[in-house]
Amino acid sequence: EAAVTQSPRNKVAVTGGKVTLSCNQTNNHNNMYWYRQDTGHGLRLIHYSYGAGSTEKGDIPDGYKASRPSQENFSLILELATPSQTSVYFCASGDGTASYTFGSGTRLLVI
Amino acid sequence: QQKVQQSPESLIVPEGGMASLNCTSSDRNVDYFWWYRQHSGKSPKMLMSIFSNGEKEEGRFTVHLNKASLHTSLHIRDSQPSDSALYLCAARGSALGRLHFGAGTQLIVIP
User: Fold this and answer.
1) Alpha carbon separation from B97 to A89, B88, B106 (Å, rounded)
2) What is the pLDDT of residues A30-49, one digit of tens each?
3) Nearest residue of A to residue B91 by CA position?
């Protein structure tokens, strides 16, 4: 069954540390997205990709990097984590014409 | 300012009642709307989509779209406690495949 899998499910990081969130999809979708979700803000787009090797900035890219080494994998990297990056992060895939398929989310706490 | 505005922020309806949720986009390039439902602690799941003027019905759920005003609404009849969730509206705008989400409407159905 086609799916989007995120890892880890939960993460505690220290301020200033490096955090990598991983996402794998078996939908064979070209497009992949990273969102964060905070109360009162809905889903905000951080980075997205149209295919392997491409990354684009979303609406709130500051403090985040992204990497798309293959069709299946899309990572979100926090080089220097800050407490303001404590949030729930969702990865999604889409073919550009239909709805997204979301992963189960990663709950990140930066202390 | 968010490109997708949802109202109300929260809504309480009795079991068996009608719930009406609203969504408007400020992006004139929007051509497609989706409604997602997100239960607490879970990922968003696509509920319905609409791109033509008029109405679309699926079971207890009805979606309306007015393309001239870029306004869509979701109506849930015979609401059930299991319908209690965060309802997110998403709009596809000028960037191919990129969705903008509203902040959501928190629906609570009281038994």
Assistant:
1) 19, 17, 26
2) 999 999 999 877 899 999 99
3) A99
